[in-house]
Each structure stands twice: as structure tokens, then as C-alpha cells.
Amino acid sequence: MRWWWGLLSGFLFLFLFGGGRAEVNCVTCHPTELKVYTHPSYLHKRCGDCHLRVEGLVDRGKVPIGEVKWWREVELLRGEYYLPLPGRMSRRPLVVKSEELEFEDLLSPDLASSLKGPKEVPKFKRVYPCDVVQGVSMSVALCLEASWPLEAEVDCDGGVRGFAEGYATVQKVWLDGLRPGEYRCRVRAHFLNDGETQREVEFHPREIDAVNFPPAGAEGEISAEIREVDGVRYLYLYSPGRVRVRVGYLPGNLRRKARKEIRDEAHRELRPLKEVATYACYRCHDRHSLGASHPVDVVYSPLNGKVRGKPEGLPIFGGKVTCASCHEPHTAVRPYLLRKQGKELCLSCHLPRYF
Ligand code: HEC
Ligand code: HEC
Ligand code: HEC
Ligand code: HEC
Ligand code: HEC
Q1: Which of 188, 212, 300, 340 is the most buried (most CB within 10 A)?
Q2: How far apart, in whole angstroms, are the C-alpha atoms of residue 77 and residue 222?
Q3: Counting ligands in written order, which one lies closest to the CA of residue 305?
């Protein structure tokens, strides 16, 4: 009765953290393949049910910061941010760093997660002037808050215009060269992957109180990922508060090394297959109540005169007969996930004269 609990917490997760947060996991690189019979753990992509990890701390691989070519600096106010990656950037290992938060991450182009959505029609939550700078003329910032990341153009009286790069759920658009007096502006927003909307806003540049977005605290987890939306790749960033982030990439000669590093990171501490092939199964299956009671964990040795020199088409793990010697652990064309059936199974290992 475990599967319904997994399903339930899955829905709960979507409900609580909806809006498309995705996770990189085993199936990003090892997509599942389904035959007629599939093990429930594999079907529900719970690879960790069998591919156990050695307990203990995992220290992350260090980014070779000295080698990074810096590309951009972006400021996040709060929430989600999507920076479009031009073709060449989308195929490079990216480095994201924030000095304030001592955050550093290396993102592999092999690990782009995809995003669909939004589930509901996106809309503006608030549009308001939120910052002002006095110079010879004045500069005013409009803040746009929405239920889904947006990019915006602003057109005001007197030919004043502004534009913000990237898609964000809280966006700041600067308008320069303003004079005292009332301004009326039209905000045109393009939502990430989904339609447009408009809004009008009026303000006096002299009557604006600057809004201070609280900084992302030390406890504030920021995250970075490469995401693909409708075939376009973006650098996705999330922060609970204001933070400056530098984005860079690793030059060509380091690319291979970085990919390997990320793969090793995903595999780090995974128990070897010879353990997965038997011990992992005992977590859920009773070793004494099997359909075919056969010794497992026994050494495969033709010296005993019962088995052939080598098993035919069946794997042996660590020199031993394991559950996975007879069963496909993932998915199979035969019932009980068997690799072979009936007498053929037995005779793949045993000598006919033994029977
Ligand atoms: C970044 C991509 C990537 C991710 C993520 C990843 N793998 Fe792999 N994995 C590979 C590649 C590529 C190979 C084959 C080359 C190699 O052995 O390094 C591989 C090989 C393996 C093997 C065979 C190793 C062997 O000894 O023959 C196992 C088992 C495996 N992965 C399990 C997992 C599991 C479980 C996860 C999730 C915890 C995972 N992988 C996540 C890329 C990945
Ligand atoms: C029921 C236990 C079980 C589950 C669940 C499971 N595996 Fe495995 N996996 C094994 C065993 C046992 C082996 C070694 C036997 C073999 O190679 O056929 C293995 C082998 C592998 C290998 C290396 C051989 C190959 O087929 O390429 C990869 C990669 C792998 N698993 C990935 C995954 C991923 C990804 C998932 C989750 C979607 C997963 N496994 C879920 C038990 C499991
Ligand atoms: C997380 C728990 C769990 C682990 C670990 C696990 N299994 Fe299972 N397995 C299940 C459940 C649940 C079922 C479905 C039981 C049922 O349908 O009666 C199942 C079913 C099976 C079946 C029967 C499929 C059928 O068609 O009736 C086989 C064979 C099997 N598992 C083999 C393995 C092997 C081999 C391993 C180790 C590589 C393993 N399992 C690890 C939970 C697990
Ligand atoms: C020598 C081959 C062999 C080995 C080794 C083996 N099995 Fe099986 N298993 C079978 C066969 C054959 C069946 C089909 C049921 C039958 O014919 O009675 C089966 C059936 C099953 C079933 C489904 C029937 C049931 O009782 O629920 C499960 C689950 C299972 N095996 C799990 C395991 C696990 C776990 C291991 C390792 C501890 C293992 N098997 C080792 C051959 C094997
Ligand atoms: C993956 C190879 C393999 C397969 C498949 C296999 N066996 Fe075995 N079997 C062994 C090994 C190895 C032993 C242990 C022999 C020894 O060293 O005593 C063994 C032992 C046995 C024993 C116990 C013998 C004894 O004297 O203790 C029986 C009975 C047996 N097998 C029957 C079967 C039957 C029936 C099948 C088909 C359902 C089967 N085996 C499939 C490898 C296999």
C-alpha cells in the first residue's frame, strides 16, 4: 500500500509548490523504458528504492572559479527569474555565483529540465512605482508583480520608454529622463510561454516612496537550474529576497571535465550494482517466501558439477547468483519480470544431467 502514499504526497507537492519547480534526477539522464511488466518502483521513478546510497555527507565538487568566463550580472528582487540563453550559452556548463550568500553552482547543459504551463491564466498582481533617483532629470522604476514570469515594455507620455530583460515574477522597469508632473504609462507584458496582458498606471515622479525589497537572508535558499520552455533554454533562478547573482560559463576545454563532474556528483555514494542486485530487494521482499525458492547469494562455480562453465545470457553479480540474475529489476516482457522462463531459465545455468 505504499504506492498511494507516494501518489498522494506527489499531488501534495504539486499543490504546495505548483508553478513548475522541477527537480533533476536519475531519469533526466536515464529515461525510463516500459515493457509489458514493470516493477512498481521503476514505474513510479523511485530509483532510490533499489539504487541505495551509502549514508554520510556528500561534499560537492568545487567549481574551478579561476577558469570561469563571466557573462552577466542580474539582480533578483524576489521569486522566479528566467534569463534566455542564446544558442552558444545554452550548450555550455554555466556557473552561478552570489558573493553575498556564498552560493555557487555548476549547471550542466545535459541536465536541462523542461517546464510546461502555466496551469491557470497568468495575470498581474500589482503594478506600482517603486523606486526613484534624482539627477538632472529623474528616473523612476515601475515594479510589476505577476502570478507567472513576465517580460515587459512600458510606454509613457512624452515618449518615455522602458524595457526589462528576462522573465520574472517580480520585475523592475526603469524609466529615464522624467520631469515633474503627472505621467501616464501603458505596460505591455508578455508572459513566459503564454500570452500577453496590458495595464495602465499613473504617477507623479515627486510623490514616489522607494520600496525596499528585503535581502535574501543567510537562510534564504536560492536555486539555479537550466530549463527548457517550448524549445528555448533559460537560466532559471529562484530567490526569496533581493540578491545579486553573477553568471558565467566554462570555456570549451573544461566542458568535458565539467560534464563528468556533474555525472559523478549524481552517482556519488551510490551502492555498487552487486549490492543493489540482492540486498536492495530484501528491504521489501522476504527472502524466504519467494515464488521459486532458490538459493541466492551463492557463489557461481562450475567446480560443484551442478552448473555450466558460464551462465548463458544471465548476469552474475560479484561472482554470485542474485535476485537480478533471474529477474529483470526494471521492466520485462515476461511475467514475474523473469529474464527467461520455465526449464530454459534453469538450463541457462544448470547442467542438464544435474536435473
Ligand atoms: C548527468 C547524467 C546522469 C545522471 C543525473 C545520472 N546518471 Fe547514471 N549514468 C550516466 C551515464 C552517462 C552513464 C554511463 C557511463 C558511466 O558509467 O559513467 C551512467 C551509468 C549508470 C549506471 C551503470 C553503472 C555501472 O556500474 O555499470 C547506473 C547503475 C546508474 N548510472 C544509475 C544512476 C542512478 C540511480 C541515478 C540517480 C541517482 C543516475 N544514474 C543519475 C549519467 C547519469
Ligand atoms: C527494483 C529495483 C530497482 C529499481 C526500482 C531501479 N533499478 Fe536500476 N538496476 C537495478 C538492478 C538490480 C540493476 C543491475 C541489473 C541489471 O543491470 O540488469 C540495475 C541497473 C541499472 C542501470 C545499469 C544497467 C542498465 O540497465 O543500463 C541503470 C542505468 C539503472 N539501473 C538506472 C535506474 C533508474 C534510472 C531507475 C529509476 C527510474 C532504476 N534504475 C530503478 C535495480 C533497480
Ligand atoms: C521499495 C520496495 C521494493 C524493493 C526495494 C523491491 N521491490 Fe520488488 N516489488 C515491490 C512491490 C510493492 C511489488 C508489487 C507486489 C505485488 O504486486 O504483489 C514488487 C513486485 C516484484 C516482483 C513481482 C512482479 C510480478 O509481476 O508479480 C518481482 C519479481 C520483484 N518485485 C523483484 C524485485 C527485485 C529483484 C528487487 C531487487 C532488485 C526488488 N523487487 C526490490 C517492492 C519492492
Ligand atoms: C534461480 C532464479 C531465481 C532467483 C535467483 C530468484 N527468483 Fe524470484 N522467481 C523466480 C521464478 C522462476 C519465479 C516465478 C514464480 C514461480 O514460478 O513460482 C519467481 C517469482 C518471484 C516473485 C513473484 C512471486 C511471489 O512470490 O510474489 C518475486 C516477488 C520474486 N521472485 C522475487 C525474488 C527476489 C527478491 C529474489 C532474490 C532474493 C529472487 N526472486 C530470486 C526465479 C528466481
Ligand atoms: C543464474 C544461474 C542459475 C539459475 C538460472 C538457476 N540456478 Fe539453481 N543454482 C545455481 C547455483 C550457482 C547453485 C548453487 C550450487 C552449489 O554451489 O551448491 C544452484 C543451486 C540450486 C539448487 C540447490 C542444489 C543443492 O544441491 O543445494 C536447486 C534445487 C536449483 N539450483 C534448482 C534450480 C532450478 C529449478 C532453476 C530454474 C527455476 C535454477 N536452479 C536456476 C545457479 C542457478
Answers
A1: 300
A2: 12
A3: 5
